[in-house]
Structure formats: structure tokens, C-alpha cells
Amino acid sequence: MIAPTIVPIFTLLFGLAFGSFLNVCIARLPWHRSIVHPPSHCPGCKTPIRSRDNIPLLSYLILRGRCRACRTPISWRYPAVELANALLWLACLLQFGLTLQGVGMAVLCFLLLGLAVMDAETLRLPDAFTLPGIALGLAWTAVTAPTGSRLATVLHAALWSFAATVLLLAIALGYRAVRGRSGLGIGDAKLLAMLAAWLGPASALLILFLGVVMAAIYGFVLLVSRRANATTRIPLGAFLSLAALYAIFAGPDTIHWYLHLFL
């Protein structure tokens, strides 16, 4: 019999390992570079990173955040992403248990964390994450649906995913018609479609609302602090991803609370 403490420990370790892989995706996918070749290397001196210097979180602490060869500072983003992914996976375990739902939500957290950081850093939401994310969401819906209604459930999820895409594209086209410039990227529409496929229409609407509110507050703070102007681009996808992480753990309770106000 597996000791109760072993599962959380292995969850954290696997979360750190996949967080390390996520860092590779974040650094390369927005620029359409391979995640396989070349091997991980220092961005400063291009020296390949040795195995002993590639241990998630621990190597960063041992090296004090610098490359062993040239002493170029290593971005704090690397250990932060590794730790964040590990903690999110632990949260999935604690919330949903060692179940199919727990595994599915851990996969979604992995995707959302990567998309949030990529959009924050590059204002890009790569198809390499959003499109497989939509497919995985529909597949997860099929696997978790009741046996007798799987086809109907998947078609329903696909329909809402398409509707989410159309909604954001309509908003984007309307904004462009009024302002004469782009306000939303198609990547944001694909992200919302992915979220609708995974979490359903109610959670997708909650995520859209929370994401827009957070983005508006962020933009207001930038304007007040004079670090931006009216044309500064806001990474909406990052805020949608953060809102989705909230929805995974507290979305149903929030929706129930809101609906209860009118019942």
C-alpha cells in the first residue's frame, strides 16, 4: 500500500520536472523554434547546460541564479514556472484527488501556466498550445462523459468552443471597425475556445468576465503610473489564463453564488 505522503511528494517532483519542460516551451514556441534541438543552453555564452545544472529549482539555487560558464544571470522566470507548476499540480491533487479529473485539471493547469507566461512575455499565444489544448479538452470531455451520452456531450462541448471563438472574433472585428486598429488577437479567441472545451460555457463566461476586469485594472494602473499610453497592448490571454486557473478551483462555487443572488 502506498503511503499517503508519497503521492504529494511525487506530484511535486513531477510538477517540477514538467515545469522545467514548460520553460523550454515558453522560451521557444512563441518564436516557432524547435523544443528538441538544440539542447538547452545558456542564452549568453551558448554553452550547453549540463545534466547536473538542469535539476529543476535546485540547480538555480546552487548556481545562485547564474550560468556556471559565463556567470550570466538566469531569469527568475525559470524557477518560478517550475515551482508554480508543481504547486498547481499539488493543488489539483488536493482538490480532486488522484482521479481522472485531477489528471485532466493538472494538464489544463500546465497549458494555462505556459500560455499566461508566453503572452505576458511576448504577446503571443502559440497554436502549438491552444490547438492541441482544444483537442485535449474535447477528448477529456469524451472520456469523462457518461457512456451513453459521450457523442452528444462532445458535440455540445465543440459547439460551445466554436461559439466562444465566434464571440471574441465578433468583439475583435467590432473594435477594429470602431477604433480602426486591432484590439484582440485571434490567439485570444482560440484560448477561450480551449477553455470552453475543457470547462464548459458557464465557466468560459466567468473566465471572460474576470479576465477582462483584471486586464482593465492592469491597464488603468499602467496609465495612472504613466508606464503606458492608450495604444499600449495588454496581454489579455495572460489574464484569461489566470482567470481560468481560478475557475478550475473555485469556478463552480462562484457561479453558484452568483446565480443564488437571483434565485
UniProtKB/TrEMBL annotation:
Superkingdom of the source species: Bacteria
Biological processes per GO annotation: methylation; signal peptide processing
Subcellular location: Cell inner membrane; Cell membrane
Entries under Gene3D superfamilies matching the protein: 1.20.120.1220
InterPro entries noted in UniProt: Peptidase_A24A_bac (IPR014032), Prepilin_IV_endopep_pep (IPR000045), Prepilin_pept_A24_N (IPR010627), Prepilin_peptidase/N-MTase (IPR050882)
Gene Ontology molecular function terms on file: aspartic-type endopeptidase activity; methyltransferase activity
Reactions this protein catalyses: Typically cleaves a -Gly-|-Phe- bond to release an N-terminal, basic peptide of 5-8 residues from type IV prepilin, and then N-methylates the new N-terminal amino group, the methyl donor being S-adenosyl-L-methionine
Job description of the protein: Plays an essential role in type IV pili and type II pseudopili formation by proteolytically removing the leader sequence from substrate proteins and subsequently monomethylating the alpha-amino group of the newly exposed N-terminal phenylalanine.
Protein name (record): Prepilin leader peptidase/N-methyltransferase
Taxonomic source organism: Silvibacterium dinghuense
